[in-house]
Each structure stands twice: as structure tokens, then as C-alpha cells.
């Protein structure tokens, strides 16, 4: 018994040591949240605030997912903020001034995002202009287009209900007398079941090929922790108005991109190009095409972010999108995307987003001056990347 | 107290996680001699020199470095340079865009009393240094306009400008042609006359025996012997015996049956220009290879062999093809991308594993399947179970030594990296395999495994074009060989009639054969 305990302890220590980088994010997130919870006298974990956090994190999260692909490929996209601002304004103008149906407006705006991605991606891949320059130019251009779009009207208030629900609404519920949002709790239980089933299957598979797996007690503890977090979040949301649509949208996008990066040829190629573009090219990978895809996906996601932001504010403003790119890039790096490319996960980028947005949310809650907010975010960002750089080659 | 030895490295032991790279190595260098350090790859030569130059800091190894009679504690290259030790690496550390004189005095600029750089003085001094290495060029031209051999001379001039007493050359002639190599060896002899001590790491035993006063052989991180050129047997055979610890009879395994079929792959009249320089890099190249045949493509560095291979392998670097055709499976094809070439059954194992062969930060499994992911695709997604089975099969079949297929490729030795590269291309099921310098930088044991593998592949009906700079290897492995020089095929020989002299003549004298 004694020896068993000891080896368990050393296993935990070993896991901590080798995975400190990936755990660090979670630890940081928990600490940040707890600090704000205590500091604000319990306001942070209130259901309304957590819902708020989800809605705020949605548009940055969508950008961070796209940005992760770009950063893995060793490029950068500085234009996403103003692309989001411009496309969000375009959606508002289409609906309010041109009388276009909200869903059609969304489709048009996504198509515009695709066109922007094609323009930037082709300039990078075919003309060979560095992405930094192309997207810096994009910042100018789309900032100009944003103010041009709203030049006559100034801020445009958006009214279609479906559109507003995207970043303010909640998934429907079955009527019940429990006083909670039942569908949310059902969803939570299903999510826990799915996680457990898939993790157990993955573990069995690994064992089948005699890969190293963590010992059973640690595996069980890990599963309990994950389940507890999922159920706790769902519980908090259920006591308010349920899961917001924004979380559903981000969740679906996240699922698609996770699948794409880990299970498809395209995902393999993205990591390959980021790791060694010449080796990828000589292995038959169409480097230009994959890179073009990443830029298109980024701009389409920027359009999604624009739509979510306009929906969130119920209006399009000339300052929309300002410095979104900074939050997105910071999220992705905090989530462990390698500064040297070739490594990164979209799920971790979302965790990075929560770190950044929990900071923003918490400091807003404490009514910290915006100037200090920027400084704090900058410091956290640099600490995270420095930590990543220091631990990567060990 | 005058000491005969300028440098004594005593009982040096250096460990990396899991590996003892140096185990009690003793290494003594006399003042003013040329001392050659030889050994297989992984024998510890580079590690030893890194310890000496302070790359591996004092304290990360055990043992003493005694230099000029004092125990040294180097904490970085700056420390060892300060004491007059300079290293000239294979990969030159020059700034291509800067003029020669700036390169020579970079990091120790000549300044005026007010602290500004005195450029006039710098140019005059640089010229003096260039004279010492017999490089007669204008010191104000940018370094990129010099060829590799002359760039190396600039590096030496730089070392001399720092008043170095001990210069370490790490494989100095590996990327030089014959003339430049000879020139470099002569410069080393002149340095010796000026009282400068030289240590040369080299694989080229002919050069080693020609120039060395003393030869130290390392094997598996230990000192095997130190041979004095005056008194000991320094024949190549003896050196090799000490390097590998066995005789070299079975270096090139023989194939049992040789059964050549039809011509499977042919290049006809290929003329290619490099659009960057406007220079013709290939001129009217013709070659073919038959089923079951290993064809060697020999030539000196820069003869155009790799360029030829890359041009037919989908031309990824965008050379300008002026004329010519490639015939594969009886069809005339000029592949527009590596993708097309792979699809038709052509594979190219790169000479530069780290540069463009492997994705180093990914694991074995990832690299093995990268060029043929469609084979493990199930609908949209990839079948990771099947992938694991395949990667494990190759790991076993071609003996990739690693704890598991989840091992990152940059943690593997050169020989195992090369095997991963070969596995990747075998998985594309090629009909024609181009191997570019398949054994460069890998040790004798792994070489033998790769040769055996090549024989097996051609016996199974593949055909191989092997590009190699190593004459014995080309002669030992090829059924037929072509020699290239300055972008032209200067000869075609059957293995039975090929000798080192014949091939070397063809590789050097392109002008005469025209």
C-alpha cells in the first residue's frame, strides 16, 4: 500500500512536470477567476456574470480559433479586428437600410468575409507579400471601409429578433417546475457522458497499441474533475436562463476545427507546413492552397465575430472591432500556440480566450480603469509567452 | 615553463539525458601542429569541440581543459575566443549582405578614440588578413558574391584578425570542390608555419593523411588512439579499422540476382535555367534507369545532380525548364508539382533531412504517413489505428531505433532520421526512387542497413537513382553510373568498367570532354 501511494505521488509529480505548460493555462484561469470572485465579494461567479462572460468571450474565441491556424502556419493576421467591424456594420446596414432578411444578410456578410480572405490569402501566397504587411494594409483598408459604411448614419441600431438572439439569446427550454433551465442540465449530463465514453475509448485504444497511459486512479480523478467542471458551469447557467446561443455557435465552430486539425489531411498539412514548409512541399502538400485556406477561414470567422459583436451590442458602431486582433492573438499564444509555428490547438486557444476575457470581465466588474486593464493584459500575455518559450525546448 | 602541448583535454566526460556523449576523453594537441580528429558520426567529435569552445559551459562536463598551461573555465564562446581559440563551422556564420571587411571585423570593430568605427583602418587591416589567406579580392564586395571556398577563407581571415592561436576546422572541405579543398589545405600548412595550431575534424581520410601531424580517433565517446604521422601507421585502412572497430570488407552488400527489365524512367535532353541567376544549371541531360537497377549519379558538389532530381520531381523551386522531357511508364511527363510526381510513382529522398526532408517537431508516425495520407483516409477523417499499424510496421521492417513511433523525429540520430525519411517514401509505393546522398552524415552501421534496404527494394522491382558524392559508395552500390559536371552528363559507365580514377576524371574535366 505504501509503495503504491508513493508511485502514485511520483506519477502525479511527473505528469505535472512534463505537462506543466498545458496545465499552467488552466491553473492561471482558475486563479484569475478565484481572485476576482473573492475580490468582488462573490459577484464573479454569479449566473448573470458567467453568462455575460460567455457572450463576451464568443467573438474573441471565434477569432482565436482562426488565428491559431494562421499562427501555426507562421503567419499573422492583423486585420481581423477591422474585418469584424466592417462586416458587422455591413450586416447592420443590409438589415436596417436595405431591408434584407437577417439570415440572408448573414450569408452575404460571410461571403464578403470569404472574399476578403481570398484577397489577403492570394496576396500572401501568389504575390509573396509577407502576411504582416498584407494584413497591416488590411487594417487601414477595412478601418476605412468601416467608417465609410457608417458614414451617413453613424451608429446603426439593429432590430431583427433572430439576429439579436445570436449573442443575447438562450437555447429554448422545456417547461418545468424545478425553477432551473432543464435542457441545459440535460445537455450537461449528456456532455459528461460523451466525454467519459470518448476518453475511455481513446485510453483503451492507446493501451491496445501499448502506448503509455496514465494510471487508473489518475485517469478517474481527471474524469471526475472534467465532469465536475462541465456540470458546475451548466448548473450556473441553468439557474439563470440556460446556455446562450453564442456558446452553441462557438462550440460548433470549435468542434469542426478540432476535428479538422486532428483528424483530417488538411489538419496534418497545416501542422506540417508550420513545422517545415519545404518538407511539406516535397511531400506533395500544396502549401499555397493550404495557406490560402487558412486566410479564407480566418476572414470568414472574422465575419462571424463581426456578426456576433453587432448582435451583442444590438448595433453597429464606428469603433467596433478595435483591437480585437490583439485579444485574438494573445488568446492563441496564451493557449500555447508556438511562437515559432507548427504547434497549437484550437481548444487551448479557447482556454486562452477565457483567460483574457475573464481578466477583462473581472476588471470591468471591479471597475478598474481601462488604462490599467491594458497594462495587466499585456503583462499576463508576455508572461504566458515567455513561459511557453522557456518550457518548449526542454 | 615551456609546455610542448598548447592544449590538453583531460578525462572529459559529458552526458546528455540517456546518453554519454563523451566518456573520459583525453585529447592533447602540440603547439604549432595540424591535429586531425576523426571518427564516425556520433563518435563525439563535435561535442568535444563544443566543450572546448565553451558552447557547453564549464560545469556541464567533468574533466579539465588545460590550455597554455592553465585550467580554463569557459562560460561561452566569447571566453574561448578571448583566449585565442576560434572554430570554423561547416555552416559558415557570415553575413552575406555585408562587405568582406565588415564581416572580418564584426564583433571586434576597430574604433577611433571617440568610439566610432574607423572604416578606413578596417579596410586596410582586412586586406592584410586576406593576404594572409591568399584571397586576392576587393574587401569591400559583399560576402555573398564569393563562392563557398572563398567564404571559408574569409572566416579564417576573421579568426586571424582576432589573433587566434588555435583554429578548429569542422569538416572544412565537405562542401568544397577539389581545387578549393587543396587550396584550403595549403593555407592550413602556411598557418602552421606561422605558428598557429590547427585542429581539423574531417571524414575525408585522404586529406587527413596528407596533412596531419597527429591523428586522434574517437569512437563511441572514447579516445581510441592518437597516431603520430612520423612514427605510426597512418594508412587509411588502419584509421578506418580504429574508427569502426572492424574491417571494412562487407561495407557494400552484394545482391544475389540481378535482373534488369525495361527502362522505367528516362530523362531526355533536359536543359534548365535558374531564374534567379539566369545561369544554365542543367544542359542537355540524358539518363535512364531500368527496372531492378541501381543507377549512380556521381559528381562534385554543385555539379547539378540535386537540381536535376528536383526538376524532374515536380520542380518545387521553380527552375525554368528550357527544353527536354521526362518519360515515365512509357508516357512523356513533366511533373508540375511534387504532388503529381508522387502520384505517378516517383519519390525523392532529400539530401537535407532537416532542411526539407522531415518535419522535425512531429513524431515518427506523422512523418511516415505525410506523403501518402490518402492511404489512411476513411472518408473525411484519417484512420489513426491503421496509421499506427503502418508506422509500427515500417519501424520494425527497416529497424528505426526509437522507444516508440510517438518519438519526435528531432530526438533521433541521423541514421534513424534517414530511415524515417525512407519509410515515408516507401509508403508512397514508388516505382522510381531517387536517393539524394542517402548516407551523408550517418554512421557505418546505419549505412550498411540502408544499402541492404536498397538492394531489397530493387530486387522487388523498384528502380533507384542514387545521387552520391562518395566515390566508393557509388562504385560499390551502382549497377551503372552517370557522372555529372557543371550541369552536364560527362560520362556513363557500367559498374564493371568504372574505377575511381575514371570517374574522378569525368567529374572534374568537363571542359575536355566537350
Structure write-up:
The complex is a heterodimer of chains A (394) and B (514). Chain A has 394 residues and is an all-alpha fold. Chain A folds into two domains: 43-169 and 245-392, ABC transporter involved in vitamin B12 uptake, BtuC (Orthogonal Bundle), CATH 1.10.3470; 173-243. Helix content of chain A is 76%, strand content 1%. Chain A is built from 15 helices and two strands. Chain A has a two-stranded antiparallel ribbon with strand order 1-2. In chain A, helix 1 (2-39) packs across helix 14 (346-365), helix 2 packs across helix 8 (216-239) and helix 3 crosses helix 12. The longest helix of chain A has 38 residues, at 2-39. Chain A is globular. The mean pLDDT of chain A is 90. Chain B has 514 residues and is an alpha/beta fold. Chain B folds into three domains: 5-244, 3-Layer(aba) Sandwich (Rossmann fold); 259-345 and 430-514, 3-Layer(aba) Sandwich (Rossmann fold), CATH 3.40.50; 356-429, no CATH class. Chain B contains 18 helices and 22 strands. Chain B has helices at 45-53, 77-82, 100-104, 119-132, 148-161, 178-193, 205-211, 236-244, 305-312, 338-343, 353-357, 364-369, 384-397, 414-426, 444-459, 471-477, 500-508, 510-513; strands at 5-16, 19-30, 34-38, 62-67, 70-71, 85-88, 166-170, 197-201, 214-219, 222-228, 263-274, 279-290, 294-299, 320-328, 331-333, 346-349, 377-378, 381-382, 432-436, 463-468, 480-485, 488-494. Chain B has a six-stranded mixed beta sheet with strand order 6-7-8-3-9-10, with helices on both faces. In chain B, strand 4 and strand 5 form a beta hairpin. In chain B, helix 4 (119-132) packs across helix 5 (148-161). The radius of gyration of chain B is 25 Å and the shape is globular. Residues 510-514 of chain B have low confidence and may be disordered. Classes of the chains: A mainly alpha (394), B alpha/beta (514). Chain A binds chain B through residues 205, 209, 211, 259, 263-265, 268, 271-272, 275-276, 278-286, 342-343, and chain B through 313, 316, 337-339, 341-343, 348, 350, 355-362, 366, 369-371, 373-374, 377, 380-382, 384-385, 388, 392, 404, 406, 424.
